[in-house]
Amino acid sequence: MLPDSNSSLSAEVSEFLLNCFVRSPKWQLWLSLPLSLLFLLAMGANATLLITIWLEESLHEPMYYLLSLLSLLDMVLCLTVIPKVLAIFWFDLRSISFSACFLQMFIMNNFLPMESCTFLAMAYDRYVAICKPLHYPSIITDQFVAKAIVFILIRNTFLTAPIPILSAWLHYCGKNIIENCICANLSVSKLSCDKVALNKIYQLIVAWTLLGSDLILIFLSYTFILRAVLRLKAKGAAGKALSTCGSHFILILFFSTILLVFVFTHMAKKKVSPDIPVLLNVLHHVIPAALNPIVYGVRTQEIKQGIWKLLRRGR
């Protein structure tokens, strides 16, 4: 039996209830269709990209390994968040166990910075390819990708793991209703009977350190790329490079901007509807996942050719 939100402070919480747009039931109806379509697009496009890179030997190169990592991160983030949100919309399955809630929190806090760090590695790959093309084969190697992946895993796991651990260690003794569609750290920890200042401060420092440093380095990489592109004298070379890198940078900017908008709307929650930050938080786990394989994959000529080869083999 679920613990009642008005139960005495001695009652330990074993499950939470996700209040997902309960104040705006029409949002659930209107959001369920585009959200399910975006989820199917994200899963289908990323799965196609992974299968194509895996089966097509010509794509067994460092750049495509990084793209595969990005697709894997997108799929895990989507599967962690969106099915539960749709289950709430369609079947009113709002309960989530204590352990499942903190597992979801761990994956979200860990994989989002991993995705940001992967964007950084891909930006560096493009920087070397355009600014130092003669040194590209000796710099961007399989060993470089392996080291980059190990760095991404260790850096983000080491720094973000304390967030769900600190939250899970708190004493939950009464309220169990999370005013969110997902187990976001701040939404969960404020239900605790303990002081949560350390939890909030640590998340804020880690978020700005990881995502902020990644964004600055990505911006510097594309600044150098832009400067090098403008010097290209080969006919059409500058335009092609700008088209490719421009779409990549816009996607990275979108990834970062939606996070910043979420932070600011959360800070100004008295001036905006409380459903707005919740909506942004949900969309941030599916829109980039749906756009990444299209911008990074389908717009790449080698990926297109690989997909067509696989389709012809299937026929």
From TrEMBL:
The keyword Transmembrane applies. Keywords: G-protein coupled receptor, Membrane, Olfaction, Receptor, Sensory transduction, Transducer, Transmembrane, Transmembrane helix. It is found in: Membrane. One of its GO terms (biological process) is cellular response to lipid. It is a multi-pass membrane protein. The chain crosses the membrane at residues 27-51, 63-82, 205-226, 246-264. GO terms for molecular function: G protein-coupled receptor activity; olfactory receptor activity. One of its GO terms (cellular component) is plasma membrane. Residues 45-296 form the G-protein coupled receptors family 1 profile domain. InterPro entries: GPCR_Rhodpsn (IPR000276), GPCR_Rhodpsn_7TM (IPR017452), Olfact_rcpt (IPR000725), OR51/52/56-like (IPR050402). Putative odorant or sperm cell receptor. PANTHER family: OLFACTORY RECEPTOR 56B1-RELATED, OLFACTORY RECEPTOR FAMILY 56 SUBFAMILY A MEMBER 9. This is G-protein coupled receptors family 1 profile domain-containing protein. The gene is LOC102440517.
